[in-house]
Structures are given as structure tokens and as C-alpha cells.
Amino acid sequence: MPTDDVGAGKLNADAEEADAKNADATVDAAAQDKTVEIEKSSDAVAAAAPQPAEPKQTTDNLAKGAAQPVAHSGAKGGALVPIVAAFVAGVLLVAAVTAIVVFYRQASNRGAELDAHAAATSAACDYGRLISTYDPQTIDDYLKKVDAASTGDWREQFAKLGQDLKGVVIDAKATSSTYDMQCGFQSGDTESANVLVVIGQTTTNVNIAAANKPPSKVELVVVAGLKKVGDKWLVDKFDLPILKQMGN
């Protein structure tokens, strides 16, 4: 083959190879340009999409190094609620129990006073009946019973008057009985009392019998004073008109 042809063929081959390289470079450049466009589009879309806001307080706290709230602090506050409620309930319970005890004591004391009033009134009626019932045959027993039911100054007073009364009853053949007895509590407490006693009394004596007159009926109003001695109510004041007359 001639040398010139060989050189020309080589030059043509080199030119073709250069053209191929240039074509490949053009393709690569176009591909890169397309990739850049796609990336730019993606970035634009991402920039257009709304971004979630980060909690400012948490970011600020973390940035400033602020102390974070302790998780169990709320639990302590919550634990105090039942304690306070239990304390309040306990106070209310104590107040309720105290009120009940006070009410019970007041009711009990009131009940005790009422019982004492009733007992004193009954004792005054019994005494009025006792001191208004006598006759010559039972005068000694009468004096003993009245003495046993009396106390204080009245007991001493009646002991002196009793012998005079005995003489009058025997000499006049006097008798006395009751046809009515009414008693009403006036004042007092569980240890002493004043009771109003109204005695319907029937009396007779030898002079009335001789005159063929019916027994006389009188009503005596007496305030009896009583004292509690042991478990008994005894009379320490009993102003009977007949005894006053005998004393004078």
C-alpha cells in the first residue's frame, strides 16, 4: 500500500474518533444538564412544601440549657389531694362525733333532771299524804314515819311539835285523812327541789262527833322543800298551818 494512503487513512480514523468523543461529551453534558434541572425542580418542590414548626419552647430551653420539668412533680401534687381530703374528712368526723357526744350528754343530763323532778314530786305527795293521815291508835307509828321521811331543821322542828300533836290527837280523839292530793314541781335540780302540795284533808274530833256534825273538809296549800339524801328524797321544809298554831 502506498505511504500516502496509509497516512490519509490514519488521519481519517483519528478524525472519526475525535468526532465520536465529541458526540459522547455532548451526550454527557446534556445528561448532566437534565440531572441538574431535575434536582432544581426537587429543591423547588421541597422549598414550596410547608415545613413542620419546631417547638419553640423546647428549642429555647435546649438552647439556653434550662432545666426541664420533672415528670414526677405532678404525681406529688396529686398525692397530696387524697391526703388533704382524708384530713378534712377526719376533722369533720371528729366534729360530728363531738356534736353527738355533746347532744347525748345534754339529753342525758336533761333526762336525769326530769327523772329527779318526777321523783321529788312523788316524794312530796307521799309526804303530804303521810303527815295528813293520823288517829289516836296509830299516833306513835305516825310520828316515827314522819320523822324518817324528814331531814334538816324541819325534822328537828317536827320532833318537838310531835309530842304536842300526840297529846291533842289523843285528848280530842282527832282523826285526819286525805280525800285529794295534788303536787306540782316548782323549781330545783337533781339534788334539791321545791314542790307545791295541795292537800284535800278530812278531819273530825270528839267535839264534832258530839255535835253530830259531819267531818270537816279543808284544803291546805303547802310548799314542800326536799333534798336528795342517798337515794331518797327527804322533806326539809313543810309549813302546815296546824303545826304553826301548835308552835305558837
Please give a structural write-up.
This protein has a domain at 108-247: Nuclear Transport Factor 2, Chain: A (Roll). Helix content is 63%, strand content 19%. Strand 1 (175-188) and strand 2 (192-204) form a beta hairpin. Mean pLDDT is 73; it is low at 1-12, 34-49, 57-67 and 69-74. The chain has 248 residues and is of the alpha+beta class. The chain has a four-stranded antiparallel beta sheet.
| Radius of gyration, taken over Cα atoms and rounded to an integer in Å | 63 Å
Structural class: alpha+beta
Termini gap: 197 Å
Q: Main sheet, how many strands, which sense, barrel?
A: 4 strands, antiparallel
Question: Percentage of helical residues?
Answer: 55-70%
Give a nutshell description of this structure.
By secondary structure, the protein is α+β, with helices and mostly antiparallel strands.
Short descriptors:
Nuclear Transport Factor 2, Chain: A, 7 helices, 248 residues, 63% helix, four-stranded antiparallel β-sheet, single chain, alpha+beta, 4 strands, disordered N terminus
Topology:
Layout: H1 3-48, H2 56-64, H3 73-131, H4 139-148, H5 152-172, E1 175-188, E2 192-204, H6 206-210, E3 216-229, E4 232-237, H7 241-247
